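Write out the 3D structure for:
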Amino acid sequence: VRIKIKFMEIVIIKRESTGSGPNTFNESENISKYEIMDGAPVRGESIPIRLFLSPYALTPTFKNIHNKFSVKYYLNLVLVDEEQRRYFKQQEITLWR
C-alpha cells in the first residue's frame, strides 16, 4: 500500500494528571507544533530534526508523586496524506533538569 504524503508535523505534548482513583483529573497541552516535511519523501531518506527547548517553560518529567501527581511529555508525529487522512505515532519522552 502506497501512501501519498502531503506533509508531516511533530507536536510536543505535556500531560498532567492529578488526584487518584476515580477522582483523577487529566489535562493535555500542546507545547509546540513544527511542520518538518512538505511533500512525499524519497525512499530510504532520513530527516534529521533538532528541537530547541529553551524557548518553552518546561518542567522535568514527574511520575506518580505520592500517587497523586504526574507530568509526562510526548512527541506526536502526524502524517497527512493527499486525501486528508491523518496517521499518528506517539512516543513518551523523559525530560531531566
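The chain has a mean pLDDT of 91.
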